[in-house]
TrEMBL record:
Functional pathway: Cofactor biosynthesis; ubiquinone biosynthesis
Biased composition (Basic and acidic residues): 400-416
Stored InterPro entries: FAD-bd, FAD/NAD-bd_sf, UbiH/COQ6, UbiH/COQ6_monooxygenase
Lineage of the organism: Bacteria, Pseudomonadati, Pseudomonadota, Alphaproteobacteria, Hyphomicrobiales
Full protein name: 2-octaprenyl-6-methoxyphenol hydroxylase
Length: 416
């Protein structure tokens, strides 16, 4: 059967597997740069109630795809980012505030419901002539030097030159590419919820650093915020089992009532935490993006921003090395090299910060407190950290640069 598949002509250029924001963005961006795209993912079983804090470089990318202008009304700006040392330990840092105005920006980014983002992406799918959509899961992938074939659960077969694996932590694409991961478990879980509250948030995101993990309130439009609450697994299960009224009262207590009375707005969710990084980000005509490539705790708004940076970086690699064959070894090697430093710096930084909260060792507490004190007291250092957070200097992809920073259009846009 494999020989039969590989004897057939190519059905498409790029096959995208995975229906989350990273996969949807990858399919749309590839199609908008001229490639024929097949998109494979089942219809979601339920609407994603989570939110994502998107940094300005990510917004530049989504603006270029004509996504952001049509969903920005559902988002709130993050003008100030506040870190509160709530460890209760002997060595603690004073509260640190980062203001976007210090580096000449209106906001560090915008917090948007994932549903609003994915709805706009799906709307663009429906009308794009280069995207063919299949609402089905992948059963198998078959590799050859000249291309790759994907067989769907319903028996449909598609042959292309590149597969973009955006199919999450248990990625079938990653397994097919024979890429292993480095993983580390954590005795933590995160509760995600949206809250209404009595006081204005002032477009300030507040992250309480606590021994079980961070408790983070991120602005939404109006007097609403999204909450990501990290606890030990047992404690998270107990908190999530509370009814909405009791949950809101406990959230008020942990937040020191900075937003006054709270009310739960919609369903809550809970998910276990852990870390993982693929040992390679591409191989065998498969490129990994998003959580198929890296997983980390929800600290510092890294997750989706890093995943969409994967997508934009892959398009840059295709532009430089693969205008005729987007799945060539030169494209995949370039992409793997390009992502390695950025991903490991972000994953390593989040892991160190998370471990510093959990650790009870006095030297670790001291180092963390001194680091936050330095950020608070040294303006140039604080501004450098802020700039790096919103516009990483490590290989910021072409499609994520500000319009006045783009030296040229994307070189890989394929001629029709």
């Amino acid at each position: 059967m494999d020989d039969e598949i590989h004897d057939t002509p190519f059905d498409t250029d790029i096959i995208v597997v995975g229906g989350g924001p990273a996969g949807l963005t990858a399919a749309l961006a590839a199609a908008q740069t001229g490639w024929r795209v097949h998109f494979m993912a089942p219809e979601p079983a339920f609407e994603d109630r989570r939110t994502s804090a998107l940094m300005v470089s990510t917004l530049s990318f989504l603006e270029r795809l004509d996504v952001w202008p049509h969903c920005s009304s559902a988002a709130a700006p993050l003008c100030t980012m506040r870190i509160v040392d709530d460890t209760g330990r002997l060595l603690r840092a004073e509260t640190v505030e980062f203001k976007a105005s210090e580096i000449g920006e209106e906001a560090f980014g915008w917090n948007i419901p994932n549903a609003a983002l994915t709805h706009r992406l799906r709307d663009l799918f429906e009308v794009h002539p280069r995207i063919t959509r299949h609402n089905t899961s992948v059963a198998s992938l078959s590799l050859r030097d000249d291309g790759i074939a994907v067989v769907a659960d319903d028996g449909m077969r598609v042959k292309g030159r590149l597969v973009i694996g955006a199919d999450g932590q248990r990625s079938r694409c990653r397994a097919a590419a024979r890429i292993t991961t480095r993983e580390w478990p954590l005795d933590q879980a995160a509760i995600a919820a949206n809250l209404e509250h009595e006081r204005d948030h002032g477009f300030t995101s507040t992250e309480f650093h606590r021994p079980p993990g961070p408790f983070t309130l991120v602005p939404l439009p109006g007097r609403r915020s999204s909450l990501v609450w990290v606890e030990t697994k047992d404690r998270a299960e107990a908190i999530n089992a509370l009814d909405d009224e009791a949950f809101a009262r406990e959230a008020e207590r942990v937040a020191h009532r900075i937003l006054g009375r709270m009310r739960v707005d919609g369903p809550r969710g809970m998910f276990p935490l852990g870390g993982a990084v693929a040992r390679s980000f591409a191989g065998n005509r498969i490129a990994l993006v998003g959580e198929a490539a890296h997983v980390m705790p929800p600290i510092g708004a890294q997750g989706l921003n890093l995943g969409l940076r994967d997508v934009a970086s892959l398009l840059d690699s295709i532009a430089r090395c693969g205008r005729e064959d987007p799945g060539s070894s030169s494209v995949l090697s370039h992409y793997d090299r390009d992502r390695r430093a950025d991903v490991w710096v972000r994953v390593g930084g989040v892991e160190v910060l998370n471990r510093s909260l959990i650790a009870g060792l006095v030297p670790v507490q001291a180092a963390r407190a001194m680091g936050l004190a330095a950020l608070r007291g040294l303006g140039p250092l604080r501004r450098a950290v802020m700039r790096e957070g919103i516009k990483p200097h490590l290989s910021l992809p072409t499609m994520m640069r500000d319009r006045d920073d783009r030296r040229r259009p994307l070189g890989g846009e394929r001629r029709p």
